[in-house]
Every structure is written in C-alpha cells, then in structure tokens.
Design a protein that fits this description.
The complex is a heterodimer of chains A (111) and B (112). Chain A has 111 residues and is mainly β. Chain A has a single domain, classed as Sandwich (Immunoglobulin-like), CATH 2.60.40. Helices cover 0% and strands 59% of the residues of chain A. Chain A contains no helices and eleven strands. In chain A, 39% of the residues are buried. By secondary structure, chain B is mainly beta. Chain B has one domain: Sandwich (Immunoglobulin-like). In chain B, the strands form two sheets. In chain B, strands 2, 4, 5, 9, 10 and 11 form a six-stranded mixed beta sheet that branches. In chain B, strands 1-3-8-7-6 form a five-stranded antiparallel beta sheet, with no helix packed on it. The mean pLDDT of chain B is 92. The chains are: A mainly beta (111), B mainly beta (112). The interface between A and B is medium-sized, with 28 and 25 residues.
C-alpha cells in the first residue's frame, strides 16, 4: 500500500510570511494527489487535487496555491499567510480502488 | 454542495455497546466511503460501498447505503475504547471520480 510523507508536523508562522508544505508518496506511481484543510473539530475542505505532473485543480479561491513538480511530490504554498490560513493540512493519495491514503498532517498556526 | 453530513455530531457510549453513525449527502454518488481519524492524525480508510450496493460488512463494521434517501449508516458492534475517534463519510460524485467530499464527522467516545 501507499505511504504518504508530510512535513513538518507543526508549524507556527507570522502573518504575511510565505508557506511551503511538501508531500511525497511512496508505493505507487501516477497517483491522484490531494490537499485538504481541516478546521478544529470540523470536516475536511478540499483545496487542490492533481491528476498528473503540472496538473492542478483548485476547489476554493484562496490565498494558497499548489504545484506538482514530480509524479509523487505535491507542494502547497502561499506567498503571504493570513490568519485564516491556520488549520490542519492533510495530503492524500488515491489508489486504484478509489481509496484515499492520508499523511499524518501539518498543524499550521498563523499568528 | 456535494458534502455529506454526519449525524450525530458526537456520541458517547460504554464499551461493548453498538455505535451507529449516519451520513446524508445531496447529489448522486459513485461510491461512499467511511474514514476514521484519531485526534491530530491523518484519516484511515475503513470501508467503501458502491452506489449499487446496499450493505457491506468488514469485521465489526457494517455499512448500509440507501440511495433513494441519499443516506448511509455505519454501525460499529461491540465497541472498544480503542474505537474512540472521529468518523467521516466521503463521497465521489457521478460527474467527477477525482473529487472526494467529506462530511463534518461524528466524534465517538467509547468509555471503558
């Protein structure tokens, strides 16, 4: 099965600073990749998904962007963080059986 | 919105009892999945039920799907303290297999 690596586990950033969260996938090739954000005690909001290198679909207009420079690498970025960007960010990969495998997440606090 | 909504938002039971969680969704689906999340961790896939299936079992888990009512239920039998977690349903729509939409979750607390 797939393994999703996400780092860092926690991140505290000041408002206006840049952001780069990286996700890498092992155990599969050409996966569909996803970035989700979860507010405390809430469900998951789909932010971006990618079906291949350089192919990014954005679900919600926001202060964030995503890139997929390699087959098993998915990056979430921001040029200037807002307070509202705080949350728990999860990367996921879909297998051929339509199941999602998740990384362990990054807790981002923007202060 | 395609998103599912779980009910109840929170559930507290004693070890050994059964736990039932419900999920409702709004549009046609390809499949419906249930995931579990321990606090502060990523989600783990539990079970998938396709739109042409009505019931599915996996160990102590039983999932039902009623497409006429646009709803699903997850039953955990003989619950254990280790089942304490949040449970989410997720759907993919008929028009786009790539998008997974999650509900707001049910927080289950199993007391030992």
């Amino acid at each position: 099965s797939q393994t999703i690596h996400q780092w860092p586990a926690t991140l505290v950033q000041p408002v206006g600073s840049p952001l780069s969260l990286e996700c890498t996938v092992e155990g599969t090739s050409n996966p569909n990749l996803y970035w989700y954000r979860q507010a405390a005690g809430r469900g998951l909001q789909l932010l971006f998904y990618s079906v291949g290198i350089g192919q990014i679909s954005s679900e919600v207009p926001q202060n964030l962007s995503a890139s997929r420079p390699q087959d098993r690498q998915f990056i979430l970025s921001s040029k200037k963080l807002l307070l509202s960007d705080s949350g728990f960010y999860l990367c996921a990969s879909r297998d051929n059986n339509e199941k999602l495998f998740f990384g362990s997440g990054t807790q981002l606090s923007v202060l | 919105s395609q998103q599912g909504e779980e009910d109840p938002q929170a559930l507290s039971i004693q070890e050994g009892e059964n736990a039932t969680m419900n999920c409702s969704y709004k549009t046609s689906i390809n499949n419906l999945q249930w995931y579990r999340q321990n606090s502060g961790r990523g989600l783990v896939h539990l079970i998938l039920i396709r739109s042409n299936e009505r019931e599915k079992h996996s160990g102590r888990l039983r999932v039902t799907l009623d497409t006429s009512k646009k709803s699903s239920s997850l039953l955990i039998t003989a619950s254990r303290a280790a089942d304490t977690a949040s449970y989410f349903c997720a759907t993919t729509s008929g028009s786009n297999f790539n998008k997974f939409y999650f509900g707001s979750g049910t927080k289950l607390n199993v007391k030992p």
